[in-house]
Write a structure and sequence with these properties.
The protein is an all-beta fold. Helices cover about 0% and strands about 45% of the residues. It has strands spanning about 15-25, 30-40, 55-60, 75-85, 90-95, 110-115. It has a 6-stranded antiparallel beta barrel.
Length: about 120
């Protein structure tokens, strides 16, 4: 019998995809310090507990190129946030970011990191 060569392991994605739905709001007021996010695969309010406290990254491309540092890599910038609670009954969550997200982020993608883990 011929031993097969060990296959290369597939890279593991440590985040879930999400979409920015909009700012938290009421009928006449808008609260830009909190954002509603729809996480892919999250369909029910009871499953939100797993995602509470998880970090969220909004990655965008800037016009100016900066010197690469641990927080910036060339043109790409990141605004970090954290999931703070559910929104409604269909699996949307609320997140709070360190700096308020710009209006151009609405409808844009975010990464919901699977850490810190509380399991």
């Amino acid at each position: 019998m011929v031993a097969s060569a060990p296959s290369k392991s597939k890279s593991v994605r440590l985040y879930c995809k999400g979409v920015v739905l909009g700012f938290r709001r009421s009928l006449r007021n808008q609260y830009p310090n909190q954002v509603r996010i729809k996480v892919q695969g999250l369909e029910d309010k009871k499953d939100v507990g797993f995602y509470l406290g998880k970090r969220v990254a909004y990655i965008y491309k800037a016009k100016t190129v900066k010197k690469a540092t641990p927080t910036t890599v060339g043109r790409f910038r990141v605004i970090w946030g954290r999931i703070i609670g559910p929104h409604g009954n269909n699996g949307a969550v609320r997140a709070k970011f360190r700096k308020n997200l710009p209006p151009t982020s609405l409808g844009g993608p975010v990464r919901v990191m699977l850490y810190p883990s509380h399991v």
